[in-house]
């Protein structure tokens, strides 16, 4: 184990040439980031999760009820033992061959069976009230942490001149505000990593999990090798659009369509400007070029920048989705359903008719009429 630890904490990987871990030990004159500080993030992540549960129960839920957001879920599928057995034990998405077999067995037409499976899948989705509470929690946290980040950074020299991120590197002392900011962000991302398995399931679960994982790696990496100054710029920049997205979702769930559209437009402008403009031209410029000029590359420097380029790839993917939704909004006159909808639905989804009948009338299900169920859930949380 000692050999493995010595290999993992190899100074020639983590630190610039001629710098050792002994040089970065805490003294009476200065405090530096220590790897063991990061253990604090785990109990704090649990505390954040518990605060979230309390917030959603005693703050967000009363707000939702005051806005007349009900806890009604999607339409309940008609009870059927045979279809339920197929749904729970075999597949939730039967292929054409299985649909035809079930049609003959039940004497139902294929369209009715398809509709039953859609309604049964939607039945497991959370209610609008649950989605509103989740969005309100995220909105509150993102607004707080972004406000704190701005207040902290405006007093720092590296916000106004990014070359200060690398002057005297890595002998840059750790301040109390910076330590709090970093540990809070890391704890939140750890809580997202775990709560993602219990939160509302969305189609880009894998991409969001990758984003959270890379974010945890970046925060951990930049803290250990004391690239925290550049890290604070990255964190604050990526937090800037997240509160707007969650506010747009809350407006959507409350059926305030005009407010939803306005907030989404603001979110799209801020997201694309910060992620495709400011991030590569300002942040990547300092981490790739200014740091090369002032400090020079070393092994962990390459890993850090590769992770930032991976984040930028995800930013490009989400920007494409946002532009796609914006184009649909222009053509339809409102923000419409996108690839990350909370509830599966389609324009031709109807109430289940009695077996054997072909449906002729269309009825909207909960969450598909008006605006509920139509707003993107977006690249939230990138937190973003």
TrEMBL record:
Domain Homeobox: 83-127
Membrane-spanning parts: 38-55, 180-198, 205-224, 260-282, 302-323
Listed GO MF terms: DNA binding; sphingosine N-acyltransferase activity
Record domain TLC: where: 130-331
Membrane topology summary: Multi-pass membrane protein
DNA-binding region as annotated in the record: 85-128
Pfam family, one: TRAM_LAG1_CLN8
Pathway recorded for this protein: Lipid metabolism; sphingolipid metabolism; Sphingolipid metabolism
Keywords in alphabetical order: DNA-binding, Endoplasmic reticulum, Homeobox, Lipid biosynthesis, Lipid metabolism, Membrane, Nucleus, Transferase, Transmembrane, Transmembrane helix
One Gene Ontology biological process: ceramide biosynthetic process
InterPro entries assigned to the protein according to its UniProt record, in alphabetical order: HD, Homeodomain-like_sf, Lag1/Lac1-like, TLC-dom
Top-rank taxon: Eukaryota
Entries under Gene3D superfamilies matching the protein: Homeodomain-like
Catalyses which reaction(s): sphinganine + octadecanoyl-CoA = N-(octadecanoyl)-sphinganine + CoA + H(+)
Subcellular localization, as worded in the UniProt entry: Endoplasmic reticulum membrane; Nucleus
Protein name (record): Ceramide synthase 6
Gene that this polypeptide is encoded by: CERS6
